[in-house]
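Board notes (copied after class):
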Amino acid sequence: MSTETLESVVPPKGKPKWLRVKLPTGKKYTQLRGLVDKYDLHTICTSGSCPNMGECWGEGTATFMILGNICTRSCGFCGVKTGRPEEVDWEEPEKVARSIKIMGIKHAVVTSVDRDDLKDMGSIIWAETVKAIRRMNPQTTLETLIPDFQGIHTHLDRIITVAPEVVSHNMETVKRLTREVRIQAKYDRSLEVLSYLRKNGVNRTKSGIMLGLGEQEGEVIQTLEDLRDAHVDVVTIGQYLQPSKKHLPVKEFILPEQFKKYEEIGLKMGFRHVESGALVRSSYKAHKHIN
């Protein structure tokens, strides 16, 4: 097993053909795009230029980010800015709920930056956002893609209490690479968060990992086994792509056949859903994960 640091890896040149993205099209996409532009709505789909935006919007799914766009953590894979976040916008829950109503979203995914600067780490705004969405959009189902809240049960309990259909927290990578990839996060703590959620009443838990950072096949399989041991129901597996030259390099572009292999392994382990492919992201086919 290689022990070289990720920073020393020379990334492969040029993206392979299976990473080429088709421009989003379709009546539903065009309609939602028009609403987003008209009302200046904010979604991760647009700001992150997600390759699956057209497909997800066509199926009535969109992802929203709360608690600002500046993170207190400095993960090596993430394109979100790091620094001192702005003050909490206590009107944000209503704004997000209104955006979902305007767009006519059937299934909403809500995520956020890490807010280690706050005493509650943002968990109160999280809970209020879910409540506001429920009030304004009673037919909309929800997935909350949450930070680890440093594993503090009081904060996690706020998410459990408002009962989103799916609660997700991403492992992002294998154990050996966690310190370099996620820096302030801890592999075992993330597993404990997922396990705690499941044991304390969350109906459906979910996690995601990225490939191409130097992980070995055995390590990926071990991560999947760890997630099953934590009673996680859904897993997403996608290709890591370098957001900028300042971020960790891509060490390898994973072949489609390998993604398919991980999907088959995961399903045999007992996951309800395994989304595995180069362009898969955390909220890909999220509307199907409530079943």
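Comment from the instructor: The beta strands are 61-66, 70-71, 81-82, 107-112, 141-145, 166-168, 205-211, 234-239, 273-276. DSSP finds ten helices and nine strands in the chain.
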